[in-house]
Design a protein that fits this description.
The protein is mainly β and 428 residues long. The chain has strands spanning 15-17, 33-37, 43-46, 55-62, 66-68, 76-80, 88-90, 95-97, 104-113, 117-123, 128-130, 137-138, 142-148, 153-155, 160-161, 164-170, 176-179, 185-189, 198-202, 208-217, 221-227, 232-235, 241-243, 247-253, 260-262, 266-268, 273-277, 282-287, 293-298, 304-317, 322-328, 342-348, 353-357, 360-363, 367-373, 377-379, 391-395, 400-405, 416-420, 423-427.
Amino acid sequence: MKKIYSLGLSAVAVALAWQMPMQAYATEIAPGVQAVYPAPDQRVNVGPNDYYLGLQEIAFQYGQPLEVNRDCTGVACIYLQGDQTPIQSVGVEGASVDVMINSRCSVLFPYVCNANGSYTVTIPEGFWYVGEGEARTLSGAMTLDYEIYVPQAVWPAPGTLSELGTITVTFPDFEKAELLDKSLISLYGVGTVDDLAFDVTEGEYANQLDIVLAAPVGKSGDYKLQLLAGAMRGVNADGSSEANSEMIYSWTVAAAGQPVITPAEGEVKEFSSFVLSVPEGAAFWFCDDRSKNYIYEADEEGNLYSDPLCMVKPVADIAAGTITLTVMETTEGKDTLIPADGYYCLVLAKGLYSGSWGDDFINSPELRYYYKVANNYSAVDSLESVDGESADVYNMQGVRVLRSVTADDLRSLPAGIYVYGNRKVVVR
């Protein structure tokens, strides 16, 4: 399974290009398309923008009126170049037409791809109707290639926080980070006049710099860090270096309106339900029981994998001030998910609830809660068969269910937890 970063993208993002040796691309743009944003066939750094960096929304400018073809059964995909399996896909529900300019359309993928690498985006034939009346035709298929490279990364990842304090900038491909010009860095609250005071210090590792606020920000609001090109750079021992790209990173501080979640973030054994509870003096007014909330696999740094493991369905008890989110639609067909050991993230959709916190009205932002599962279970997909290697399989009651089989044979078992050789495995 390939890893992507779960972040967002502005519909009006601008693609910036650098001079660099290009690989052979296979981009094919459909007839009638006048422009594609971000532009393919180049090394791209998508930004500045409202939130994050990468590939998520691909927009097309046609010279004729457009209409989404709701009957299209094709699927748009994002691939890592060279792979046959997409890391993301979306049907025609991800297609749209600009309500202000009906000759412009776009396709929105579930999550951003912003990890450095080479990507191919495929758009099927017929996502849109092009033209009007008897001249109306189906949009053509497209293949778009991108090379994404951003020399620096930031932590905490852009998103929603309860407080904004130190921001760490890392140059992962370099041995050392250096500050070049502090005046090219600005940190400010959206809608405010004055910039926030900060200092730049060495980070925990040599290839990191810390942007340390004079005082942590706990006031609710949107905050942006702007790095103009050349503010800092990464350097290697051989003298090679590269300055930062121009970027804007955004965070939302939601000091009020953060409900308490049970189970709390941290280590758990399984997922069955979660309960959001409002603090004293607060109240839920509304819960969107149609919102799409999911559990994802993640890595230790909080980056999400492409496909959700399952959905969680919200049910509110407004009087009690709670929202219960129950695991739904697991691959095991059960309402309890017992995943393999690793890191997971519960992602609650923006607008899941609204309510009051003191004198403030809160419409919930996207919320993320991180968990670690440590049952000493392995996923079957992580086991590799070795020629001549086999072992017996036992269920959790100690009953042998298969004799002398390879790891590949475990896929024939019903979903559940088994002992294979000297380890526990999860079959999904």
